[in-house]
């Protein structure tokens, strides 16, 4: 048995401080979106306690209490819901619990499954209508957080082989077809807005987003994970290769930029690279590329992805820009991705990625650090959220610190597995 890394103590202490829903201050819980937000609220904290209960580190009573908070009122569905909010967020949390406790929440999940399928089919109809008009897509049409890639990750867990999932995959395949706009040939996922999803004067010609949270790496990961599971629609493998070719043209050494602008399409401009992270940058993109390599059984591509990830995670200058612990863009998230990637790597690549994981854990929780003080400081400064706060930090640290795979597969909401 592997000896747990001391960062596990930090994960445990965060969970202890977040054990009682009634004890959390109203400054966290009073926001109207709190109960339904996977990213910022109760469903995300529930995920932490579900995973801990499933691994034997926590109590099912605590997980059930948090799931009760998340399901204690009307659940948003339709156009205002997405993987990280409303019915899909609750479905993901309950599904993780049901995987560890077969038969649990069966009735609730049956109702939620129907809602997810109906909403996904409606989203696909909207995407097809947009294509028929010749318009460019919004990020929220296809990304992981708000779009079809995120909904598809849920359907892949809940409805393998179903009509709604096939429709989502077909829409994402069409998304990879080139389009023309203003004399430029653009990838089909080029959005007319800025990275915020809103018009932005800094992006007068729109942009092509490369990130795993908001860009094309999300659809790439979903198409690849579906193919690995045996789910394939016409054009899926070609779509994966199209995205891979785009990312290869954008790559600078072992790094990828967050996004590509119209100016970056012109020759002679050097692309700048930013910090590695799950949401944007090399860690998320490299993991998506590794998943694509596994789906296509492409050993060369797999080695390229693993080398890029290991190199990024040993780059002192790049890591210096990583200044927090969060799952989204911090050290815990990087450790989780490195640990997941190492499990799928060949022996040399796995050794480098395991070494990177250990270094990241040491940096996240340095030796002789008081876990109680660190946990309380994290809650005070970052709050309890899944993506950018303490719950996500604790959850992302759990698997790498114990040298295990997530028992519930909670990280499918990140499209890293």
From TrEMBL:
Top-level taxon of origin: Bacteria
Pfam families listed in its UniProt record: LANC_like (PF05147)
Molecular function as annotated in GO: metal ion binding
Gene Ontology BP terms: peptide modification
Residue ranges crossing the lipid bilayer per the database entry: none
Keywords, comma-separated and alphabetical: Metal-binding, Zinc
Positions with a binding annotation for Zn(2+): 279, 328-329
Full protein name: Lanthionine synthetase
UniProt source species: Kitasatospora phosalacinea
């Amino acid at each position: 048995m592997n000896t747990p890394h001391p960062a596990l103590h930090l994960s445990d202490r965060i969970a202890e401080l977040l054990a009682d829903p009634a004890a959390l201050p109203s400054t966290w819980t009073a926001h109207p979106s709190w109960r339904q937000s996977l990213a910022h609220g109760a469903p995300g904290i529930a995920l932490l306690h579900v995973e801990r209960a499933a691994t034997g580190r926590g109590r099912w009573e605590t997980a059930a209490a948090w799931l009760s908070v998340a399901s204690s009122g009307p659940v948003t569905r339709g156009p205002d819901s997405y993987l990280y909010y409303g019915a899909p967020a609750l479905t993901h949390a309950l599904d993780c619990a049901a995987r560890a406790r077969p038969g649990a929440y069966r009735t609730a999940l049956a109702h939620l499954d129907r809602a997810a399928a109906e909403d996904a089919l409606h989203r696909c109809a909207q995407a097809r209508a947009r294509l028929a008009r010749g318009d460019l897509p919004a990020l929220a049409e296809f990304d992981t957080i708000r779009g079809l890639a995120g909904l598809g990750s849920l359907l892949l867990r809940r409805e393998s082989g179903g009509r709604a999932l096939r429709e989502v995959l077909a829409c994402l395949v069409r998304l990879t077809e080139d389009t023309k706009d203003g004399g430029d040939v653009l990838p089909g996922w080029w959005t007319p807005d800025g990275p915020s999803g809103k018009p932005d004067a800094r992006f007068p010609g729109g942009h092509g987003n490369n990130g795993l949270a908001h860009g094309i790496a999300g659809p790439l990961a979903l198409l690849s994970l579906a193919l690995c599971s045996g789910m394939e629609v016409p054009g899926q493998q070609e779509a994966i290769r199209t995205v891979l070719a785009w990312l290869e043209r954008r790559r600078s050494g072992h790094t990828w930029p967050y996004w590509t602008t119209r100016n970056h399409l012109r020759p002679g401009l050097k692309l700048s690279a930013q910090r590695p992270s799950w949401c944007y940058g090399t860690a998320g993109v490299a993991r998506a590329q590794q998943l694509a390599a596994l789906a296509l059984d492409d050993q060369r591509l797999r080695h390229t992805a693993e080398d890029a990830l290991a190199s990024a995670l040993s780059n002192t200058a790049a890591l210096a820009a990583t200044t927090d612990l969060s799952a989204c863009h911090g050290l815990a998230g990087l450790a989780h991705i490195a640990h997941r990637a190492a499990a799928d790597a060949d022996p040399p690549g796995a050794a480098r990625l395991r070494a990177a994981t250990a270094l990241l854990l040491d940096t996240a929780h340095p030796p002789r650090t008081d876990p109680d003080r660190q946990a309380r400081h994290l809650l005070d400064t970052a709050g309890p959220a899944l993506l950018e706060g303490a719950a996500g930090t604790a959850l992302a640290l759990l698997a790498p610190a114990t040298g295990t795979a997530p028992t519930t597969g909670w990280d499918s909401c990140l499209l890293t597995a």
